[in-house]
């Protein structure tokens, strides 16, 4: 039995379906089993990572855990939750993030610092662990979907920022191998997509996928910042994103070959991700 956390989300949903395809028994952790849209054959168990005692029922009889810690809640009872998980499961595969280093310190509001803290907690338990450190998710570009659906134009800053975005399905594929096969204990997998595309090129690829032109219109960073905050993002996160995109204009993200090394097949191109998500942009 494998427990999948984040099972109703982008990566965890693929982990669930790929484990089912392999004939593995899957239990899904969710805060609301009644609302969780999960495939037949998956046992949904209520639990909240912020409330460690609530995890016991989900951990009963579990051999391995796919652990996804929703961004920025690592301060809530993380140590107690990790201890409980490691006390029951033999193996943990944790979704961290590219840019995390072993000695990175926690800092208020720092996503990378939060992942580094979780990694240290897991290492400290003695459980058999594998860390996935993916770069930016292709699914982040769904943020553009309302504009693309309404106008066919994405008005943002830093269209020349180069990103090696990864398909959420590829993160799941590596996670499932680490959960179900031996030989991944103690591995840290830095995962990216197979190529670097500018944001303007990503928008054009979405247009090709949906069969109508979509274009990038460059606006000022201040304008993008205002839009992100108006859309509900915290000022700190919006500033972080805009600054990171600014840096990626002069220093585009690099790709890693890790996915292909681990799986034996190339990582999924952004163009294919756009085809898979065409319905979200139409
Ligand atoms: N986006 C990126 O570019 C990027 C890059 C690198 C790393 N990451 C990391 O990837 C993770 C996000 O992955 P994702 O996009 O697959 O997630 P997601 O789609 O946002 O899904 C979040 C999942 O977490 C669950 N969840 C939320 N709060 C919970 C709680 N308190 N207790 C238990 N479960 C809870 C939700 O389940 P229920 O609602 O059913 O409870 C849902 O399944 C984050 O840790 C992020 O830092 C993201």
TrEMBL record:
Identify this protein by name: Nucleotide-diphosphate-sugar epimerase
InterPro entries on file: Ergot_Alk_Oxidoreductase, NAD(P)-bd_dom, NAD(P)-bd_dom_sf
Give the Pfam families listed for this entry: NAD_binding_10
Residue ranges of the NAD(P)-binding domain? 6-181
Concerning PANTHER family, the annotation shows: PRESTALK A DIFFERENTIATION PROTEIN A (PTHR43162:SF1), PTHR43162
């Amino acid at each position: 039995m494998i427990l999948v956390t984040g099972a109703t989300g982008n990566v965890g949903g693929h982990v669930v379906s790929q484990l089912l395809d392999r004939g593995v028994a899957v239990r899904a952790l969710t805060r609301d089993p009644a609302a969780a849209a999960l495939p037949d054959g998956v046992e949904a168990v209520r639990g909240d990572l912020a409330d460690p005692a609530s995890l016991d029922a989900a951990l009963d009889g579990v051999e391995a855990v796919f652990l996804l810690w929703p961004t920025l809640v690592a301060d809530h009872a993380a140590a107690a939750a990790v201890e409980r998980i490691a006390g029951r499961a033999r193996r943990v595969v944790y979704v961290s993030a590219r840019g995390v280093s072993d000695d990175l310190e926690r800092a208020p509001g720092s996503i990378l610092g939060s992942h580094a803290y979780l990694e240290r907690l897991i290492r400290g338990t003695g459980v058999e662990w594998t860390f996935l450190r993916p770069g930016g998710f292709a699914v982040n570009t769904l943020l553009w979907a309302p504009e693309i659906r309404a106008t066919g134009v994405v008005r943002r800053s830093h269209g020349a920022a180069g990103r090696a975005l990864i398909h959420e399905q590829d993160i799941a594929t590596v996670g499932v191998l680490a959960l179900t096969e031996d030989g991944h204990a103690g591995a840290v997998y830095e995962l990216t997509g197979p190529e670097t595309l500018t944001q303007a090129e990503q928008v054009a690829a979405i247009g090709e996928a949906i069969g109508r032109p979509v274009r990038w219109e460059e606006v000022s960073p201040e304008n993008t910042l205002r839009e992100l905050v108006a859309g509900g993002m915290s000022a700190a996160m919006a500033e972080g994103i805009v600054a990171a995109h600014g840096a990626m204009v002069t220093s585009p993200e690099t790709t890693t070959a890790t996915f292909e090394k681990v799986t034996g097949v190339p990582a999924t191109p952004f163009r294919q991700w756009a085809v898979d998500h065409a319905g979200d942009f139409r």
